[in-house]
Design a protein that fits this description.
The chain is mainly β. It is built from one helix and 35 strands. Helices cover about 0% and strands about 70% of the residues.
Length: about 650
């Protein structure tokens, strides 16, 4: 089928407008003849959420329930033609009631919310060079409690964008406004906390097959008198990709950020990296990075490296590289040079196995000149391990400056509620995640802080590593070992120089036969860094069996035993779950979990501390025509040293009726 061209659309539009006038300019056809409305879609949702918690030690109980009912109405339509203009309008009123009761408190609360969203797209489906989109959303809510608690909130989001639909470099210019106005009061005699701000952003961005670029200007207007948190942000980004020959490529990146006003800072990053395929067996990777950060301290860094890789007989690989860096700040200057050489060997062996081995080493010199002041670390990324203990990267940290946020830098966590801070061996600092807080295992968090810089000294670093392994598919074994030794050349060394070790030995088993799948692994690891030593043993097991297409049973378990300088930690975790679909549209998932951690040593006062969690639950999901029902029930028991010993039952029931 032939696609209509711009002239066809233009002719249809002129003819349509002509018929609307009916021969006279003032007599237009009725609106319903040029606006096409689709059937209204609606969705009615009713949700019940109730919990019952009791303390085993005190015998006190508390109950909480909440009922929420909402109706969402959606109207879609187009003007003239779907390819010319479309629009969506959604309106959702919601009402909720809740009650909390305990031995000392009886509290009722009621809430009313109104949300609406509108969006429009113009000329998006036409072959013309431009199109436009618009979006508007508003959410308002009021919740009142029987003890004088009250929450009011209004959130608005408005945006408009123009799109240039060229094939060479599609570009979008957008403008957005976000308004947040909320007031919270916990009781009649409590002070109110208020947030009232507006964020305005204008963005220009484009993308081609080799390059993407954007520039953004954002400003926050804090509209609360006496609290000056206004700021203006400017962000720029340019990425370029270039490929040539057989396997060669160049990648360039330029990022710029500048904030003035509240919490001012400026950052500039420039990266250049190249991969060149010189011959069939010889490749090189080189890179250069420039970074400049200005906050309380101005820091600039330049670093470069080049690495050659040669492959001989498809089994022997040689790597050689050199690198250097220069870091300069207001109070320190550091210069580092490194060289490294490594050889790797891989060979097929009988019975379908592969043998691999490698050895490498390096030597470097670092020259640090410092006035020993506090330096900034901004947004250090950490993944929370299963043990819920995060050891920060830097030494000599000022713990009063630690700030922890989520991965998006939106939520700021609270010390004593979500985590605690504690010193550990080697002048390091660790975050101990609180089980009932807002941080969970496997979450990514960002940590910012200040730390004491190194004194003036010059030292050398020698590294050595080797690894070997056997892999037969169903079983594999490995051993890795690396070490780093630092030696003073001049200046004050003291505890600032360290010798690090990292050794690991492990085995992995895998079985996949018909409906059954099993995995098992074990690893013993020794680590020494900055004088902090850990010796750990970790095991992981998983098993799943598929009885039929509609039923699968799964087990999982992990255990780890870690011995440190001032703390030994034992960790156990086990899960079991069943996926069952007895009839079409109905899914049932029962599950159970056990979680236990024990700590003992100096860090817990030469005693023992433990945390334990046991939980069983079931989830059911039923879809029948235009009706959806979701049920979830959990029975959880938590027990920990220090008095925590609670049992909680919680049930959530959601029913949805749709028109579509």
């Amino acid at each position: 089928m032939r696609t209509p061209g711009p002239k066809t659309y233009f002719a249809v539009l002129i003819a349509f407008l002509g018929t609307m006038s009916n021969g006279r300019a003032q007599e237009w056809l009725p609106v319903e003849q040029w606006i096409h409305l689709y059937p209204i879609e609606w969705e009615l949702t009713s949700k019940f959420d109730g919990s019952w918690e009791r303390s085993i030690r005190s015998g006190q109980t508390s109950r909480e329930r909440e009922m929420e009912t909402g109706l969402r109405l959606k109207q879609r339509g187009d003007v003239l033609d779907r390819r010319i203009a479309t629009f969506d309008i959604e309106v959702e009123p919601v009402t909720s009631t809740g009650r909390f009761t305990s031995a000392t408190t009886n509290e009722d609360r009621e809430g009313d919310f109104l949300n609406y969203v509108g969006s429009a797209s113009i000329l998006h489906g036409t072959p013309g060079p431009v199109s436009f989109t618009a979006h508007m959303a508003r959410a308002t809510g009021t919740t009142e409690g029987s003890l004088g608690a009250r929450t009011e909130s209004t959130n608005e989001d408005q945006s408009v964008a123009a799109h240039w639909k060229t094939r060479v470099f599609p570009t979008t210019l957008s403008y957005e406004e976000r308004f947040t106005d909320s007031t919270f009061r916990s009781g009649l005699n409590a002070n109110s906390s208020k947030r009232d701000d507006a964020v305005r952003t204008i963005t220009l961005k484009g993308r081609s097959s080799k390059m993407d670029a954007s520039i953004e200007r954002a400003s926050l207007d804090d509209r609360i008198p006496g609290r000056d948190r206004d700021f203006n942000d400017t962000r720029g980004r340019l990425n370029h990709r270039l490929r040539w020959g057989k396997g060669s490529r160049l990648y360039s990146r330029l990022h710029y950020f500048d904030r003035n006003g509240f919490n001012p800072s400026t950052r500039l990053n420039l990266d250049e990296s190249a991969h060149i395929q010189h011959t069939k067996n010889l490749t090189s990777d080189s890179s250069y990075q420039f970074a400049s950060t200005k906050q309380t301290v101005t820091t600039t860094s330049n670093s470069a490296n080049i690495n050659l890789r040669h492959k001989l007989y498809d089994s022997l690989t040689t790597n050689a590289g050199v690198s250097g860096s220069l870091v300069d700040s207001d109070f320190s200057e550091s210069t580092t040079y490194n060289g490294n050489l490594g050889v790797g060997y891989s060979k097929r062996i009988p019975w379908g196995g592969t043998f691999s081995a490698g050895v490498g080493g390096g030597y470097g010199i670092s020259d640090n000149k410092s006035q020993q002041t506090l330096l900034d670390v901004i947004d250090e990324s950490q993944v929370v391990p299963a043990t819920l203990i995060v050891v920060l990267d830097s030494r000599f940290i000022d713990v009063t400056t630690i700030v922890v946020t989520d991965a998006a830098s939106v939520v700021t966590f609270t010390e004593g509620v979500d985590y605690t801070v504690a010193p550990t061996s080697g002048d390091l600092t660790e975050l101990r995640i609180i089980l009932a807080g807002g941080i969970s295992a496997a979450d990514t968090i960002l940590v910012s802080y200040k730390f004491q810089s190194l004194p003036s000294l010059k030292f050398s670093t020698r590294t050595f590593n080797w690894q070997t392994g056997l892999n037969f598919g169903w079983i594999s074994v490995f051993h890795n070992e690396s070490r780093s030794d630092q030696n003073l050349i001049s200046g004050a060394g003291g505890t600032f120089l360290t010798d690090d070790r990292d050794n690991s030995t492990g085995i992995e088993l895998e079985w996949d036969e018909g409906p059954a799948r099993a995995r098992a692994s074990g690893e013993k690891r020794f680590r020494k860094t900055s004088g902090f030593e850990t010796d750990s043993l970790e095991f992981n097991q998983s098993l799943s069996y598929r009885f039929s297409r509609d039923a699968t049973l799964a087990f999982g378990a992990s255990e780890s035993f870690t011995e440190g300088n001032n703390r030994d930690t034992d960790f156990y975790n086990g899960t079991v779950s069943l996926f069952w679909q007895p009839i079409h549209g109905l899914t049932i998932r029962p599950n159970a979990e056990l979680w236990l951690r024990k700590d003992k040593g100096e860090s817990v006062g030469n005693g023992e501390r433990f945390e334990r969690f046991k939980g069983v639950g079931i989830e059911a999901h039923w879809n029948w025509r235009k009706i959806e029902v979701r049920l979830r029930y959990n029975h959880d028991a938590r027990k920990a040293s220090g008095g925590t010993d609670t049992v909680e039952d919680r049930i959530t029931l959601t029913m949805v009726r749709r028109s579509f």
